[in-house]
Design brief:
Elements: H1 9-18, H2 21-33, H3 37-41, E1 48-49, E2 54-57, E3 71-74, H4 77-85, H5 111-124, H6 133-146, H7 151-158, H8 163-169, H9 174-190
Antiparallel strand pairs: 1-2, 2-3
C-alpha cells in the first residue's frame, strides 16, 4: 500500500476553521467520526440518534458500507453540535448547495465536488500537497490511538476488523514522537539507582 498523508489535530482544526460554511459540516463529521466519504454521503437522519449520542452506519437502497461493516459510532461534542444545528430539510444529513447545473436542493454530495472544496481550503492554508477526503479518516484513527484509545475500540468505531489494516492508518507525528521521547527522558532522569547491599 502507498503511504498516506495524515494531518495533526492542529492541522485538522485549521482546515475546519478555514472551511466555508457550506462544506464545514461535512468536514467536521468526517474529522470527528472517522467515516469514509461514502458513509457520509449515504448518511440519513434516520441514522442519527441525538438522544443516544450515536450515529449508525447501515446499508440502504443499493448502497452498503465497504466490507459490509454496519456499525454504531458514538458522537463527539463537536459532531453533536453540527448535527443539532443542521436543517432537516432533506433525507440526507449533509447535502450539496445548489448550482446552475444541479439547482435542486437536498442532493447528496459527490466525492469530486467535496474533494474540490477541500483542495481549495488546503491550498489556502498551505497544505495543498498533503491530503484528500480520506485523510480525515487517517487522522481520526491516528489521533484516537495516540490518545490511548484501545485499538479494539477504534476498530469498532471505524469498521476495521484486521489489526494490520489499523496499523496502516496509524501515524506517529513528529510532535507526538517528541513528547513521548521527552516523557521517557524525564522518567530516566527521575529514576534513582538502586543502592548496593552493604557487605555484612
Amino acid at each position: 500500500p502507498t503511504k498516506q498523508p495524515c494531518w495533526t489535530r492542529e492541522e485538522v482544526l485549521s482546515i475546519l476553521a478555514a472551511s466555508p460554511p457550506m462544506v464545514r459540516s461535512a468536514f467536521i463529521l468526517l474529522a470527528e467520526t472517522g467515516m469514509r466519504f461514502g458513509e457520509l454521503q449515504w448518511l440519513t437522519w434516520d441514522d442519527i440518534g441525538l438522544q443516544q449520542k450515536i450515529l449508525n452506519i447501515s446499508a440502504k437502497d443499493n448502497w452498503k458500507p465497504k466490507t459490509g461493516d454496519e456499525r454504531s459510532v458514538p458522537l463527539s461534542e463537536a459532531a453533536l453540535v453540527v448535527l443539532t444545528d443542521l436543517p432537516r430539510s432533506a433525507r440526507w444529513v449533509v447535502t450539496m448547495p445548489p448550482t446552475t447545473r444541479l439547482p435542486q436542493l437536498g442532493q447528496q454530495w459527490t466525492e469530486r465536488r467535496l474533494l474540490m472544496s477541500l483542495k481549495s481550503v488546503l491550498k489556502g492554508i498551505g497544505l495543498e500537497l498533503a491530503g484528500k477526503l480520506h485523510t480525515f479518516r487517517h487522522s481520526f484513527i491516528s489521533h484516537a490511538l495516540l490518545c490511548n484509545t484501545p485499538a479494539a475500540v477504534v476498530r469498532k468505531w471505524v469498521g476495521h476488523v484486521d489489526q494490520r489494516t489499523i496499523d496502516l492508518y496509524t501515524h506517529v507525528h513528529d510532535v507526538a514522537s517528541r513528547v513521548a521521547m521527552d516523557r521517557l527522558s524525564d522518567d530516566f532522569k527521575n529514576a534513582k539507582p538502586k543502592k548496593e547491599k552493604e557487605n555484612e
